[in-house]
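Support reply, case 0932

Customer input (verbatim):
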Amino acid sequence: IALAVDALTALLTYSMQKDSVNIRALFLHNLSDALASVAVVIGGTLILLYDMRWVDPAITIGIAGYILYLGLTEIGGTIRTLMLGSPVDIDTDAVIVALSNIEGVIDLHHVHFWQMGEHDASLEAHVIIEESAWDQLENIKYRIKQALAQEFNIRHSTLEFEHPDHMHKDAHTYGHG
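Our regenerated output:
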């Protein structure tokens, strides 16, 4: 019964597991349980029919190794999110180019990208605005946030605007350097 339930659950969650780390964990858990059930049935059969007692610890070690492998290969994305790492699926250079091309923007520096959640990225940046564009600041901020959301799916941003006369000199594009 456990084999049927685990196999059915793995089958039902297969298509959804690509979009959610939680569903992926459920899928992998049920898949490994189903495979373990198959291995136990095969191992039990070999022990009963051929007295191959070494099969039991071999299957146990194999199942433990498989679960350890799954855990190690899946933990990276979760650790990246928990440690507020940079999102892997965002071309950070393309973001900077796109924002720099917005009318009124001279340059960006101290740019930080974070993976805030499974599907949520965040950006923080210092934006240097042309001296003549300060009266358009809210419009520039709106266009930056719109570009971030529509082109890069970055829906949370913190922007610090700087005047060219008072900008940080020799600032690094990424981070604080």
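We compared this against your earlier run and they match. Two observations from our side: Residues 92-166 form a domain with the Alpha-Beta Plaits fold (CATH 3.30.70.1350). The CA atoms of residues 14 and 27 lie 6 Å apart. Please reopen the case if you see a mismatch on your end.
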